[in-house]
Amino acid sequence: MQAPDFEVASPPPDGISALAFSPQADILAVPSWDNAVRLYEVQPNGTTVPKASYNHEGPVFCVDWSKDGSSVVSGGADKAARMYDLATGQSTQVAAHDEPIRCAKFLNQQGNILATGSWDKTIKYWDLRSPQPVGVAQLGERCYSMDTKGDLLVAATADRKIHIINLSNPTTVYKECISPLKWQTRTVSCFIDGKGYAIGSIEGRVGIQYVDEKEAAKCFSFKCHRDETKNVYSVNDISFHPTYGTFSTAGADGTISFWDKDSKQRLNTLPRSTGTIACTAFNRTGNIFAYAVSYDWTKGHQFHATEGQVNKIMLHAVTDEEVKPRAPKR
Fold first, then answer.
1. Is Repeat found in the keyword set (predicted)?
2. 236: three-class secondary structure by DSSP
3. What gap in Å lies between CA 17 and CA 170, rounded to an integer?
4. Which of 43, 36, 46 is nearest to 15 (CA)?
């Protein structure tokens, strides 16, 4: 019998917009609609201790860690990205856009370069030692989701557009295409080998896409996060396991499933939560899986009063059976 999932102590009082674990320790960063970013330390026994917090001047939408785990960067509705230094406890503004910042990611190859994606239809690259961006990529539409792995950066924008950037030439869009899914993009997440990405939409579908044309035959899409009465739910987040390369999908139906893209099968499903799953994250070793039960705004602001009261962060102890790839079904 598996142990029940742990509930994180003192969660944000308002919507939880993202989750990110430190690449060096079991510390979880959590941005929220209450204008704050909170850090929680996960103890070896699964309990959590609130470690620190800092504020923006508006709701915070995204968070990422520096590769050495010494600092956290977050972006939000105040059109700013802020960096919090764990050693000093100080936060400073490190980036600015003309509209809210929806995504912020440190680049894998250059640890001190930050990419920020905004509703001002640009991705800006920042050397954190300099107040001006070192490069800008024009997207043509608002950035909704962004991820990077190795030399690959993928940005999903409004109008179902996908922009693929090779980071050896970061200001030029290497390839632009339309999402394989018919409806608005909610999330995009890169494979751990950097050869492609998974994309999730508002109508319960996931697309598995390879960048190299030679691997186009491996691309496919599948349905998920639907119920017996044909209700269709948004796929709110996709997280790849850091070792196995299998992945999770989290839905507005309150369910989380683990999948293997190579054998095209579902590996496991967690028990249904009482609310919407807004976002997810694996820790650096892949043995802790965090998920936030929080309103995801897919039904608009009028439902926030009834459904926006639950804000919980849960920690699930991951077993190999749930996430290890399996041989393809014959």
1. yes
2. strand
3. 27
4. 36
What is the DSSP annotation of 176-191? EEE-SSSS-EEEEEE-
**DSSP character at residue 307:** H
| Chain segment 193-213, per-residue pLDDT in tens | 999 999 999 999 999 999 999
Residue type, 263: S
- Rounded to whole angstroms, how far apart are CA atoms 307 and 309? 6
134 - beta bridge partners?
none
Q: What is the DSSP letter of 241?
A: -
* Other CB atoms within 10 Å distance of the CB of residue 141: 15
User: For residue 25, with 0-12 CB atoms within 10 Å meaning exposed, 13-18 middle and 19 or more buried, which class applies?
Assistant: middle
pLDDT in tens, 137-187: 999 999 999 999 999 999 999 999 999 999 999 999 999 999 999 999 999
CB–CB of 12/34 below 8 Å? yes
- Calpha distance 204→157 (Å, rounded): 18
* Locus of tokens 């820790």: 283
The tokens describing 140, both together, are 């043509």
Looking at the whole model, is its pTM more than 0.85? yes
Which class does domain 16-148 fall in?
mainly beta
Structure tokens at 20: 């990110």
